[in-house]
Structures are given as C-alpha cells and as structure tokens.
Write a structure and sequence with these properties.
The chain is an all-alpha fold and 64 residues long. The protein has one domain (11-63). It has 3 helices and no strands. The longest helix is centred in the last third of the chain and has 23 residues, at 41-63.
C-alpha cells in the first residue's frame, strides 16, 4: 500500500497524490479481480484481449 506524507496541513493534496499512487499501482483493479474469485485461464485471456482493444481504440481516438 502506498503511503503519503501530509505537509503543511495540505490534506487535499495528500489525498490527491494518494489516489494517483493507488491508480498507478492498480490496487483497486487488483482488489476487484480478487473479489470475483477464480477465473479460468481462457476467460482471463479473453478479458485481457478485450481490455487491450479498448485501450487501443482510446489511444487512436486521442491521436486524431
């Protein structure tokens, strides 16, 4: 788990940086995956492929 130091009483800034660190590490995503339980390897592969195509489409949309 990420840790953040609050400086000069700036709790909002510390909270923002904490959320960014958690997003970069993918903690929320991992927790949601664990919540669903075991998935067969084929199901995981399909989901990963689907996510990859989604991300590719997002990148293409941003570069146009």
């Amino acid at each position: 788990m990420a840790s953040v130091v609050v400086r000069n009483g700036d709790v909002d800034g510390a909270l923002r940086s904490m959320k960014q660190k958690n997003a970069r590490e993918g903690l929320l995503k991992k927790a949601r995956e664990r919540q669903d339980g075991y998935k067969k390897p084929g199901v995981r592969r399909r989901e990963k492929k689907k996510e990859g195509t989604k991300n590719t489409r997002k990148r293409e949309r941003n570069y146009r």
